[in-house]
Amino acid sequence: MPALLDDVRFAFQPLFNLHTGGVVAVEALARPHDGTVQDLLRMAFRAGYLANTDVALACRAVRDAADHGLGLPLHVNLLALTVADKPELMAPLYGALREVGRTPADVVVEVGTPYSRAPRRLLVRGVERLREDGFRIGLDGVGEGDSPLSLLTEVRPDVIKLDREVVVALPTDPARFALAQALQHLCEHIGSLVVAEGVETEAQLAALRRLGVRLAQGNLLAGPQRRPKVDATIAAVLSEVSDPESVTSTMTAPLRRQAGPRVTDFLHPATTLPDSATSEEVRDVLANQPTVSGVVLVDGEGRPRWTVDRNRFLLAVTGPFGHALHAKREAARLADRPKLIGSGSSALELLDVVAHANRERTNDDLVVVDDDDRCLGVVRVADVVRGVAEMKVEQAAALSPLTRLPGSDSIAREVDRRILGGELFAVGWLDVDAFKRVNDSAGFAAGDDLIRAIGRALTEGAPSFPGVQVGHVGGDDFLVVAGLDEVVPFAAGVLDVPFEVEGRGVTLSLATLICAAGSVGSYREVSRLLAPLKEHAKSLRGTSWVLGRPGSDHVDVLRGGPHLAVG
User: Fold this and answer.
1) Average pLDDT score over residue span 385-405
2) Is residue 77 domain-shared with residue 125, that is, in the same domain?
3) Is 167 helix (H, G, I), strand (E, B) or coil?
4) Are residues 443 and 493 in the same domain?
């Protein structure tokens, strides 16, 4: 087998952050001279050297990346069978890292299929050993093949690679879109990041952005190369895909975090050196990497001790005496204590940290750390400011200009979130009876005043019920999402308010659908089931309220009476 490995070369494909447009890591892809890497591994399996060959390929990937000067986090691939094998088989990988001066913290081990052939207990233990030694963990091929969802929750990997077959189908297949949406929701709960692989078209990229996926790789962004441009950006591609809402209308709205983006949405790889590094070593790094804004000096455990800001450092070491004064001395003398922020923090929390920093350091990068205070990367303040501004503009654009209530997209996200969470909840559809007659008789300005008054009643009633979310979806139509124990008191409070236009009373109609876990599959289905309930409510006299359930023709009338017969 060693002779066969001599003919293996590696290509490196960048992974991009879809928020910043920058490269955050590179994946090493084995390229045998003849056949594929799968053919090579099959031959090794038949010869009884599968795990040894698999680890040897990972070692070659580490050395090739070093030969090309790739200092970004490196993704290497190992089979699940290899990770579940004897721990001593991994020794060459540790040796390769020491040889090139890298640490396990610089490497993401992508555990690949087949999973079912690896004993589950041994696989989980193997992953735990790698993580304890500092490696970050990825699970590859999720969404196709034999990747069990329970393994995701048990391992809680740092990254989950969404299989290219799922990515290809996202723009046209609602079922695959829902699968990816559910996976993204799961990852937000277990602290994993979704990486979409095999992105080939702008439609796929738009679908991923709609889902909230923030890491991606594929030929649309950058193909595998022997020496990729790690300072490349995909800003041009992202600007061309400027309307993520252009995805096929059969898709549901994205599941976005209500609190806004996290700091990890804007993460850049950190350029690190040991905390004992000299000023000369730091200067060499900055000279060879003109796009790097600073260097993080870390201890032996990867914990940040100092940060060196590019501009302040170069100002100190340039000039006729600067180099002679500082070159051989520790760079920490010209460094600052790092501004740290936890990986689970929101972008708004980061801005709060910046606001309380010394004025001369407000533009410094912040160092993102994990629960063990190890450096995960850096965040640039300008990226976060831009991202939060875009979020606020997007939120403002989604509000009704008349009532300042969220629109249908916000309600759709909330309904889909509760469906995926298996919650018991209610959705109500409220409108004004004969609203056109109000406009025709009193004028559209009076009609606008009525809509504002209803919006105020909904808004003022909601704070007493934490699980209630209200939205104005157009015209005189309002939507309410609430917990089962909240819907009755909240709705009753709104319906008890007397509304009138120019002294004449106005009546409302409310249709409510009670959704048990598993009874509905999407916001679209909820909308369809509410339509006949709304028609029923409209058939009643006075302010009306009806209640129904999916799968049942029975309708409970909570308010309103039958229309009187005319004759």
Assistant:
1) 66
2) yes
3) helix
4) yes
Q: In DSSP terms, which residues pair with 562 in a beta bridge?
A: 540
Beta strand 366-369 with 375-379: parallel, antiparallel or unpaired?
antiparallel
Mean pLDDT of 67-75: 84
Mark which of 385, 409, 441 sits at the end of a domain. 385
In angstroms, the CA 434 to CA 543 distance is 12
Average pLDDT over residues 309-325: 76
Best-predicted range by mean pLDDT (79-88, 264-273, 370-379, 461-470): 79-88
**Residue 288 binned pLDDT confidence (cut-offs 50, 70, 90):** confident
Q: Which of 456, 527, 556 is nearest to 249 (CA)?
A: 527
Q: Does residue 175 sit in the same domain as residue 287?
A: no
- Please list, in sequence order, all residues whose beta carbon lies within 8 angstroms of the beta carbon of residue 552, skipping any fewer than 6 positions away: none
| Angstrom distance (rounded) from CA 5 to CA 27 | 19
Higher pLDDT, 495 or 563: 495
Answer yes or no: do 303 and 428 share one domain: no
* Residue length of the chain: 567
Task: Specify if 391 maps to a domain.
Answer: no
Q: What is the CATH number of the domain that holds 314?
A: 3.10.580.10
Helices and strands of the chain, counted as H and E runs: 21, 23
Q: Is 387:265 a contact under the CB 8 Å cutoff?
A: yes
User: Exposure of 36 by Cβ count < 10 A (0-12 exposed, 13-18 middle, 19+ buried)?
Assistant: exposed
* Domain count for the chain: 3
Residue with tokens 């920058």: 22
The tokens describing 449, both together, are 């005043």
Same domain, 20 and 151: yes
In this structure, which long-range contacts are made by residues 291-294, counting pairs with CB atoms below 8 Å and at least 24 apart in sequence? 291/231, 293/365, 293/378, 293/380, 294/364, 294/365, 294/378
Task: Say how many C-beta atoms besides its own lie within 10 A of residue 455's C-beta.
Answer: 19
Q: How distant, in Å, are the alpha carbons of 357, 419, 521 from that of 550?
A: 54, 13, 11
Pairing of strands 508-515, 540-548: parallel
Which structural domain range is residue 16 located in? 2-250
CA distances from 35 to 7, 8, 39, 82 (A): 11, 10, 6, 21
Helix intervals (H) in 79-158: 80-83, 91-100, 120-132, 149-155
Residue with tokens 């004028």: 443
542, 419: one domain? yes
Specify if 258 maps to a domain. no
In a domain, 262, yes or no: no
Q: Are residues 326 and 420 in the same domain?
A: no
Same domain, 191 and 281: no
Contact partners, residue 287, CB within 8 Å, separation at least 6: none
Strands 23-32 and 74-79: parallel
DSSP per residue over 453-486, as a string?
HHHHHHHHHGGG-TT-EEEEEETTEEEEEEEHHH
96: in domain: yes
Distance of CA 64 to the CA centre of its chain: 31
Bridge partner list, 396: none
